[in-house]
Give the backbone structure.
Amino acid sequence: MELRHLRYFSAVADTLHFGRAARRVHISQPTLSQQIRQLEEEVGTPLFERTRAGVRLTQAGELFRTYASRALEDVNAGLSAVGALRGLATGALRVGYPPSMRGIVVPALAAVLRKHPGLALSAEEAVVRRLERRLADGRLDVGLGYAPARLADLDAEPVFDSRLVLVVARGHALAGAESVGVKLLAEEPFALLSRGLRVRARVDAHFAAIRLVPRVALESNAVATVLAIVRAGLAVTVLPEPRLADAERLVVKRLSPAPRSELAALLWRKGAPRTPAAELFAAEVRARAKEDAG
């Protein structure tokens, strides 16, 4: 018995007509009849009853149909799995994320590349508005942003709470504090992300809520620049968790009162198929978010 016998049997069982079944599987009717007879000889009993009124399944045929359908489904699933694996070996992955999430994205991308070094990765760092537009236009496979997404064409899958924290140099006077309140913050110079960025809007909203007018020593649209100034001990900053990138020689402290958190999310294009590489990346992000939450 070969796989083609199961496919030919399934076509006849579905149509109950040898002519239509032959056209479906792209062979001649006499050849199909011959293949079905071979299958019946292998099984040891008739699977179809042929009469002037047409064709119908015998009791044995009805029983065999269940197992033949299951076998074909398993084979098709196996072919899909192998195709997905082949895609991971030679395919591509296009990811977009905001600078504040670099600390969780970079380890996830590194894990993907270690498992599948043949993948061609493209990582785009940009503000969330731009990432959402590029994802909706099909120029990214998956993105990171916030839930809910601004664009109706996107689905947002929440993965972790994005909490604002104070970041100071390891030798800073506030590094030993359990939490930092308004009075202590009022005395510090700040290095902040530029106005117009979503994180800066969150930071400004928190400062307004606690009635703090920060002394801003530096503004930059690059997280790395802000952290470099903080690391040098020249300012403090407020950025989201988890896993700040470039966290060497830095200390993260809780703010009091605690700022309002947002849901960081994986962003997907609605109705679009998800590539195996994108699913693998998403699984790595979920795993790292779970580690941080634990």
Observations:
- The chain has a mean pLDDT of 89.
- The CA atoms of residues 8 and 25 lie 7 Å apart.
